[in-house]
Each structure stands twice: as structure tokens, then as C-alpha cells.
Write a structure and sequence with these properties.
9 helices; single chain; about 160 residues
Length: about 160
């Protein structure tokens, strides 16, 4: 579970990823883009805190370059800014599926994985498994048939 206030490490991490993304404007996959200014404006919008504008720009670029690791990294950063760590992990894992040695994506996944909320398994499941085991293992088939017949008679 994360706190409402980002830690110094979280701030440094997000700043570092934003700077990495800004430097990667010259990335080969985006160098041939029809709209290289869209990437720069998306980075500037992100830095200025205009998350909706940044997302729109990155999504437009992503439609042209669906597996670009830099775009997926930045879309994941936007998701983390909104505390949507699962969505961020999904974007970064998509990037890793196409670029498995990308250190920036690997570091982002390692950073975000512990941020996900832990879900607890309910105890009801254990109780049901115990009842099922007792009925199947310890009760004879004849007794099960008699109990079932009684339920049918009672139910009408």
C-alpha cells in the first residue's frame, strides 16, 4: 500500500524516468515519426503537470508506434502519477514483450511491482474445501445417496 505523499525515492524515480524519456526523443523508432514535435510537447505537458494533455499526445503517438518502449514507458509513468500501478505494469510489460532487454522498462517494472495492493484470500474458501473433502472422502456413497434423497423429499 502506498502513502498519499510520495517518498523522495519515488520522486527521484519519476524525475529520472521523465528525463530518460526526454533524452530519448532521438530514439530511432520515433525519429521517423511524422510528428516528432508531439513527443516533445507530451514531455513538456507531463513536466508541467498537464497529465491529460500528455496522455493524449502519447496515445496519438502510440497509435502510430504501438510497441515503442519509450512511449509505453511514458504512458506507464502517467498511470503511476494517477496511482494506477496495475495499468502501468501492463504497459511496461507490453514493452518488455517486444523489447525484453530494455533496462528502463525492467527498472520500472521492478519499482512498480511492490506498489500493487496485496489482496487477501478469504477464509471461506478454506472452509468450503474442508466441507467438500469431508463429504467426498469421509462419507460413504450410500450415505450421500440417502442424504440426497432426503433433500429431494423435503424440497418436494
Amino acid at each position: 500500500m502506498t502513502s498519499a505523499h510520495p517518498t523522495r525515492i519515488d520522486s527521484y524515480f519519476q524525475l529520472a524516468l521523465a528525463l530518460i524519456a526526454a533524452v530519448s526523443i532521438l530514439a530511432p523508432s520515433l525519429a521517423h515519426s511524422q510528428k516528432p514535435d508531439a513527443f516533445a510537447s507530451a514531455i513538456e505537458a507531463f513536466k508541467a503537470g498537464k497529465i491529460d494533455d500528455a496522455r493524449a499526445s502519447f496515445l496519438e503517438l502510440e497509435s502510430q508506434h504501438p510497441n515503442d518502449p519509450t512511449l509505453l514507458l511514458n504512458l506507464g509513468l502517467i498511470a503511476t502519477k494517477e496511482k494506477r500501478f496495475g495499468a502501468a505494469l501492463g504497459l511496461w510489460r507490453k514493452g518488455l514483450a517486444h523489447h525484453p532487454t530494455n533496462d528502463q522498462l525492467l527498472n520500472a517494472v521492478d519499482w512498480a511491482r511492490p506498489k500493487l495492493a496485496k489482496s487477501e484470500i478469504t477464509r471461506d474458501f478454506d472452509l468450503w474445501e474442508e466441507v467438500r473433502r469431508v463429504l467426498i472422502v469421509r462419507v460413504s456413497p450410500v450415505a450421500t445417496t440417502i442424504v440426497s434423497a432426503l433433500f429431494f423429499v423435503i424440497a418436494g
